[in-house]
Amino acid sequence: MPPILRSLIAFLALASLAASGAAERLCPGQDVAPMADGRMLGHLPYAEAPTGTLVSAPAGFAIGAPCYVHRDMAPDLNRLLLAAKGTPGVGMALRAVSCFRSVEHQRLVFCSQIGPRKRCANAAERARSVGPPGYSEHATGYAIDFGARPLVGGCGDVNACFAQTPAGRWLIAHAPEYGFELSFPQGNAQGVTWEPWHWRWVGISALEAGADKARALFARARASFPAYPRTPDASPLLAPLPFAIPTPAPTPVINGVPILPPKPKPAPPPSPKPDSPSVD
After folding, report:
1. How far apart are alpha carbons 194 and 180 in whole angstroms?
2. In a domain, 278, yes or no
3. What does the pLDDT read at residue 243?
4. Beta-carbon-side half-sphere exposure of residue 259 (alpha carbons within 13 Å)
5. How far apart are CA 147 and CA 162, in angstroms?
6. Residue 4 counted as domain residue
7. Is-cis flag, bond preceding 50, omega within 30?
8. DSSP codes joined into one string, the chain
9. Residue 40 lies in a domain
10. Per DSSP, what are the bridge partners of residue 27?
11. Does residue 1 form part of some domain?
12. CATH number of the domain within which 80 lies
């Protein structure tokens, strides 16, 4: 079965489950029913990207496990890293903690910290900071958790203090210039903790190659739970003009006959110039 068809079937299965309201087993002992709007513990459903759409991130970017991203995102990621490299304290420090994750990998990440003597007592607590399997932007290949190496001031990975590091500040100021937006800003309506390290790619404009697919995928998230900072919704080429275009007055019609304005009279021919006196 082609990978894209397998991903579509998996997504339709998730959508069907959400519509039925039946409980879904996220982890052993953690059966949770989707919310009425199809979200799971606040998170929107996302299908797993087909393997053929993924490419390796630049060498040296990943921390630990290899980093794979959607091929449409790769050119902007390269430009972002190149721009960051020219900023003291940022370029060589900006790294990837996590990139694409399969649904099953997401399940391991999500469930690993639920239970006695773990960080979270149940799936609801865990979902405050990690998307449940089948409900993570990482499965799309368009999301990256950024980090820094070496660690700055004892600030660990996936921690709110990342926003105060040189790399975190640079991303907040410049990532939208390269098509990235912060998925979970402070006080977001999804109920997810502030994640200044988690950025999704939607392209610098809707006209950029591949951006239309990414924006369609994240359309509901962007409309209902806006990112901040975010990238613009339209290309500058489509921005309103800074002046009004005059609208021509309608042509009056009498008895079905349009009354056209009189044609302007032709300008009189120029008077002949007198001959210039000769100079000996």
Report:
1. 16
2. no
3. 45
4. 5
5. 7
6. no
7. no
8. --HHHHHHHHHHHHHHHHHHT--EEEETTEEEPPPTTS-BTTBPP-PPPPGGGEEEPPTT-BSSS--EEETTTHHHHHHHHHHHHTSTTTTTTEEEEE----HHHHHHHHHTTBSTTSSBSSHHHHTTTSPPTTS-GGGGT-EEEEEESS-STT--SS-GGGGGSHHHHHHHHHGGGGTEEESS-TT-TT-PPP-TTEEEE--SSTTSTTHHHHHHHTHHHHHHS--SS---SS-GGGSPPSSPPPPPPPPPEETTEE-PPPPPPPPPPPPPPPPPPP--
9. no
10. 30
11. no
12. 3.30.1380.10
Residue whose tokens read 């794979």: 68
Q: Which domain holds residue 67?
A: 48-236
Average pLDDT per block of 10 residues along the chain, 280 residues long: 53 53 94 97 98 97 96 98 93 94 98 96 98 98 97 94 96 97 96 97 96 98 96 57 50 62 66 56
Tell me the pTM.
0.77
Sign of CA dihedral 172, 155, 159, 46: positive
- Long-range contacts (CB closer than 8 Å, 24 or more residues apart) made by 248-251: none
Tally of domains within the chain: 1
Judged by phi (left if over 0) then psi (alpha if -120 to 50, else beta), residue 39 lies in beta
Tell me, what amino acid is at 75? P
Backbone phi, then psi, for 25, in 5-degree steps? -80, 105
Query: Cα(31)–Cα(26) distance, rounded to whole angstroms?
Result: 6
Burial (Cβ within 10 Å: 0-12, 13-18, ≥19) of residue 50: middle
- Both tokens assigned to 246: 């005059």
